[in-house]
Design a protein that fits this description.
The protein has helices at about 10-20, 60-65, 75-85, 95-105, 175-185, 210-215, 235-245, 255-265, 265-275, 285-295, 300-315, 340-345, 345-350, 365-385, 400-405, 410-425, 430-435, 445-460, 470-475, 480-490, 495, and strands at about 40, 55-60, 115-120, 120-125, 130-140, 145-150, 155-160, 195-200, 200-205, 220-230. With about 500 residues, the protein is α+β, with helices and mostly antiparallel strands.
């Protein structure tokens, strides 16, 4: 289509676009009702080579158009599909993603049988109905033989554990890392091959699964690989772990929060985690490192660490609460929440703010889970109440009056203490130390749904909707302790939030 996109689409151009896509939102393909606003946006951004023509424009519903932010439409659509995949389970590998693509794409196959026949210094790989020949190389240290090849996904699988024994792929895919690489590889080359081995009649990948995963989302179906034929599995596994740990220039840490730790502290964290001192790397160890190497007081170091924890929530792309948080010290008509109030409510009760002693690479390290749980709670606040907030200061509807009462500073500090108690009760957490770390654990979908019910019950408390002039407005300007005591007298108790009648 040769029509160049103008600043504003005219009616004829919109009709041409709808003739191509129908009145369906490009983000997910769902129909847009006739009485709903219709938006149009670029499918592929100009920065990545998107053309300035109508066939690069698609319709969107208003909610998805607002939700996508600055992402190009195609990237936003992939982001939603990716989120759909990762919501199925937190612990997924390339194998799980390949199964997902097989379910979604007609004709997509992976892990098909192949045979590697060695003849002299070459290997013939037979699979998917064709043969290909590759030069063989020999490792001068181990004597292992290997070859380089660009292989179709139909011949590849992840080196996970199966009935034949343990696999060499010990890590899970990280959603943010896959999405970042997905966008990176739209404009950048792949510098290193993925690494795998021949296992029985299959070629399985144990290094580079994030690379392959991100390229799959970009539509790639062939991948550069280095493939070992008959390695010693114990030595290869040790080598693989070491390559991503003590001998790498930038060590691999699977945790999202550890990556954020590096973003927050920059070079200091790089120096710390590359120390060859034989000690497990931990948050507590890093804080001690900072105290020993920087001219900072204990208080200054602790404050920097707390800021890292808070920013991990505030800057997350999954945080729908962020749009309601003021960038300054005061709330506004559009942003009723302040960072100070969040520190004294949500963060105070649901983020464990002391550095952890668990190894950053160990399964016991649960900062990722804490981040996910806090984001879920914040998003419940939006879904169940804040999305109705009006930025029009002159509007004083019953709904707006209710929301102003709920999200006032003294009110939030009071009811978050009650909410924390109710969540601990629902999760059957009694120990004082565990209560301080209530979200520092893996929570199932069922447990998160219980927490959402508690939040919904909190926001449905009848006195939030009391008429103007009710004593609640005077009480909510009092001290936090007085506010909480009054709430409990009036029936807003931990027991009520857990399901008891007032």
């Amino acid at each position: 289509m040769a029509i160049t996109l103008k600043r504003q689409l005219d009616l004829s151009e919109k009709e041409q676009i709808l003739a191509i896509h129908g009145r369906n939102c490009y983000a997910t393909g769902h129909p847009i009702p006739d009485d709903a606003p219709l938006h149009f946006d670029h499918i592929r951004a100009f920065a990545t080579g998107g053309p300035s023509s109508l066939d690069n424009i698609a319709p969107m519903c208003e909610p998805h158009n607002k939700a996508k932010g600055t992402l190009p439409l195609e990237d936003f659509r992939v982001r939603l599909k990716m989120r759909d995949f990762f919501q199925e389970s937190r612990d997924v590998t390339l194998h799980d993603l390949l199964k997902y693509f097989k379910e979604k794409e007609t004709g997509f196959t992976f892990g098909n049988p192949s045979t590697a026949n060695v003849l002299g210094d070459g290997v013939t790989l037979s699979g998917s109905g064709s043969d290909a020949q590759y030069e063989l190389y020999t490792c001068p240290t181990t004597g292992w033989r290997y070859f380089y090849a660009t292989l179709p996904i139909s011949l590849l699988d992840s080196d996970d554990a199966d009935d034949s024994g343990a696999g060499l792929q010990p890590r899970f895919l990280i959603e943010d890392k896959v999405f970042e690489l997905f966008r990176h590889f739209q404009t950048h080359p792949v510098l290193q091959p993925s690494i795998g081995r021949v296992r029985g009649s299959q070629i399985v990948i144990f290094d580079g699964q994030h690379k392959i995963a991100s390229l799959l989302w970009n539509g790639r179906k062939n991948f550069e690989c280095k493939v070992y034929l008959n390695p010693d599995l114990r030595l290869l596994n040790d080598t693989n772990i070491s390559a991503h740990d003590k001998y790498s220039q930038t060590r691999f840490f699977a945790s999202i929060m550890v990556r954020k730790l590096g973003d927050e502290f920059g070079g200091d964290f790089e120096v710390y985690r590359n120390q060859e001192d034989g000690k497990p790397k931990s948050e507590d160890g890093f804080i001690q490192f900072l105290r020993a190497t920087q001219v900072l007081t204990r208080g200054e170091v602790n404050e920097r660490f707390r800021s890292y924890l808070f920013n991990s929530v505030l800057k997350s792309s999954d945080n729908s609460l962020a749009k309601y948080i003021s960038t300054g010290n005061r709330s506004s008509a559009a942003t009723p929440l302040t960072l100070d109030v969040l520190k004294k409510s949500l963060f105070a009760k649901f983020i464990y703010q002391a550095p952890l002693t668990e190894s950053l690479t160990g399964v016991e390290y649960k900062r990722d889970s804490e981040l996910s749980n806090v984001l879920a709670l914040g998003n419940y606040m939006v879904d169940l109440a804040l999305h109705n907030w009006s930025s029009d200061a002159s509007t004083k509807t019953d709904t707006q009056r209710k929301l102003e009462r709920i999200f006032g500073s003294k009110s939030m500090m009071a009811w978050f203490e009650l909410l924390h108690g109710a969540v601990c009760g629902k999760l059957e957490i009694d120990d004082a130390d565990d209560r301080a770390k209530v979200f520092l654990r893996d929570l199932s979908d069922k447990q998160l749904e219980r927490i959402k019910v508690i939040v919904g019950r909190l926001f449905d408390w009848p006195l939030w909707s009391a008429p103007a002039g009710h004593e609640i407005d005077r009480i909510l300007s009092d001290r936090k302790t007085a506010v909480k005591d009054w709430m409990k007298i009036k029936g807003l108790t931990t027991g009520y939030l857990m399901g008891a009648s007032e």
